[in-house]
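ARCHIVE RECORD
Type: protein–small molecule complex
Small molecule: tetrahydrodeoxyuridine
Source of inputs: curated submission
Record status: active
Notes field left blank by submitter.
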Amino acid sequence: MTDQTPPDEDLIAAARAAAAQSYSPYSNFPVGAALRFADGGVVTGTNIENASYGLALCAETVAVALAMAQGRRGGLEAVAVTGPGDEPITPCGRCRQVLNELAQLGGTDPQVLCVGPDEVRRTTLSALLPDAFGPASLG
Ligand code: THU
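STRUCTURE (tokenized, with ligand):
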């Protein structure tokens, strides 16, 4: 963490703000994700659905895509994810794998903050995706 690193509260607020931009008319399940990087940068994403339901993009995947489109290839230190329910949600399996790509590229094991209305559950990506397959696995 640098002096410029936003605190977890700011990351959580960023995830909540991202959820407010969700395009989820089919599930009515808005999700927000916020990624914090070692340089203090924060990149957010939200879920984007489609009339062809199976094409929905998850919030975490959108956030990773935006970050990588900005040129980021590592430094992922923390991820906050929030959904609409009473309980925190964890990233889906596909998003764990997508997050792992960026994390492994930079050699980090990001904190994952699963944010509910009244509670934040803290875990790590390696706990959510043990023995992950990633770029290093390709030799
Ligand atoms: N969703 C996410 O954005 N992230 C997850 O980790 C789980 C699910 C979205 C996909 C879909 O738009 C809605 O939540 C309901 O599954």
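CURATOR ANNOTATION: Residues 14-129 form a domain with the Cytidine Deaminase; domain 2 fold (CATH 3.40.140.10).
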